[in-house]
Amino acid sequence: RAWNSAYGGVYVEKTGDMVSNPFMKEPDMITRDGRVFTLKPPAVMTKEISTYAGNRDQFFFRITSLKPLNPANAPDAFERDALNRFESGQKEYYRNEMIGQSMYFRYMAPLFVEESCLGCHGDSGYKTGEVRGGISVNIDVGRTERELKRNFVVILVLGVLSLTVLLLVVFYFTGNLIEHINASRRWIEELIITDDLTGISNRRHLLSRFEEEFNKAGRLGLPLGCVMFDLDRFKAVNDKYGHLAGDEVLRRFAALLSQEARSYDVLGRLGGEEFIVVLTSTGIDETRSFAERVRAHVEDMVCEIEGVHGFRVTVSAGVTVMREDDTSIENILGRADEAMYAAKAAGRNRVC
Fold it and tell me: Residue 75 class from Cβ within 10 Å (0-12 exposed, 13-18 middle, 19+ buried)?
């Protein structure tokens, strides 16, 4: 409307059953080649755009006034109420209203008299800067809500739906946007707690979960087992077969621990070639049995990567359980570390 008004109206060629504006003086113009053009002022163009959108079940709007040139543009009750409010200085007006069988969101904003308006409305007694009318927008909220029931998030966003058609279109894409944001957040959270090489818990998350199980076991009086694993002569594997081979060994060992541990046990990579498994509700005998089972599987495991014939590795393990006088997980880790080094000193490939 503002664009049209800035040019004092827009001429279009009369075709078909197009009718000239009967409320304007000499709206038509004939070109030298005989074609007839008629002037479309802002209000007429706005009405035709509204009709175009309404025929496609989108929304409809129009310009109305307390003193319309065209009686068909006279305000209804809602619009008259809004126009009176604008005369008192209110900037906008809106409410929900039943029209026919559907609920509509009705919005109205004032239009002020500009110099370009006086060409059509000069005889109405308006002055520049005065409120001469308003633009009334009607959106079928009932239809929109029915279409958005498939997406709960978008319905929540619809609760704070803004007052313009542009934002309504944006809300259609909000569901997908939030889904992508949530997926990105889950990916970041997983990245923070996961060792990127082995796919199991990293040191920080491992110790955090260990602390949780330690507090739970102390509170409920439950046993808690801990095994510290260290791959034997791992540096020699890297030196002889390369770091790709070493990485493959770490991944296969982590996969073995995940396979042997229960879903509610805690396992992770402490650092380098050291791993921790915390066995909940498990005493010393069961903890030692678990460690021995893992050690045996590693001893039987044949590692192969491209360009390197199969080679074997072994692992040493230190076993301990939570004691009544333990005040933190550091006490348990210290004993597990001592036991693991005792296994190393006793010849490696064993459980102590």
Answer: buried
